[in-house]
Each structure stands twice: as C-alpha cells, then as structure tokens.
Amino acid sequence: MPELQRLRADHGPAVLAFELANRAYFAGFISDRGDEFFGQFSERHNTLLAEQEAGICACYVLVGEDGSVLGRFNLYDISGGTAELGYRVAEHVAGRGVATATVRELCRLAADQYGLHALKAAVSHENVASRKVLTKAGFIPVGPADPGGKPGTWYRRDLADG
C-alpha cells in the first residue's frame, strides 16, 4: 500500500525519476517546468527542504511499495492558518482515486499537524481531473485564477468541515 511520507533529502533521486518519467504527461495539464528545473534539481530539492524546515511549506511524496514516487503533494505559502495545495500523480496511477485519497489525507495532516484552518488550490479549466479531485476532496470553487498563465479557478476547503 502506498505511504505518504514527508519529503526528505534521500527522496531526491526517486522524485527526480518521477518528474522525468511523467514530464510529458504533466505538460498536457500544466506548464512544463523546463530543462532548467531538471538541470538544477538537486539545488531545488535542497531549497524545498530548507523552506520546509523554516515552516514555509510542507512537502510530501506518495511512495509505492517498491520505493518509487507515485505522487507529490505539497502545502505552499503556509501563513495565517492557510496554505496553497499543489499535487501531481504519476500517469500510471491516475484515475484510480489515488490523488483524491491523498489530498484528503493531506487535508487531515494540514489541520492536525500544522494547525491550518483552510487550504486553497488553483486549477486550470482544462485540467478536468484535478477539478474532480478537489471537488471529491471537499473543495469548492471560490473565484477566478490563472495557474501557469492559463484561465482557471481557485478552490478552497475549510478544514474544520472534516
């Protein structure tokens, strides 16, 4: 059974493999991160770990039984009891409820471990799968957004709602 784990330094190689293996798949829904992201992956990974240590973000990976990364689930810009949610799952597990179940788990962690009372997420209109995940996980649309420069919607979930 997959396990949600807080991001650690030793996750780096598996996260990079996940990002590379799914790069084309992700680019169909969100802006490509570009070659620079992959060329400077180690530095970016270390920066995320430092930001996590400082309490600015909380980053998680969903790890399969074989140690591979099946998804990334992150809370960004933690401030004033709220944070922004970002996530992505591997193509081979998409459409199986993995993202929805893990977003629900991260909502629980956000409230229980970080004391957050609300999460928000921006999704482009063309990313139907992510909109469904958020809706199933209890998020509601609250206004226009432009994730990655694309027309979209902000979603919000009040964590006191369970």
Structure commentary:
By secondary structure, the chain is an alpha+beta fold. It contains six helices and seven strands, in the order βααααβββαβαββ. The chain has a seven-stranded mixed β-sheet, with helices on both faces. Strand 3 and strand 4 form a beta hairpin. The radius of gyration is 15 Å and the shape is globular. The protein starts with a strand and ends with a strand. The model has no long low-confidence stretch (mean pLDDT 93).
Q: How much of the residues is beta strand, in percent?
A: 25-35%
Distance between the termini: 24 Å
Helix and strand pattern: EHHHHEEEHEHEE
Oligomeric state of this protein? single chain
Average pLDDT works out at 93
Q: Could you say which structural class the secondary elements and strand pairing correspond to?
A: alpha+beta
Q: Specify Rg, calculated over alpha carbons.
A: 15 Å
Helix content, binned percent: 25-40%
Contiguous uncertain segments of 5+ residues: none
| 3D shape | globular
The number of helices is: 6
Report strand order across the widest sheet.
Answer: 1-2-3-4-5-7-6
Instruction: Tell me the major beta sheet.
Output: 7 strands, mixed
The tally of strands reads: 7
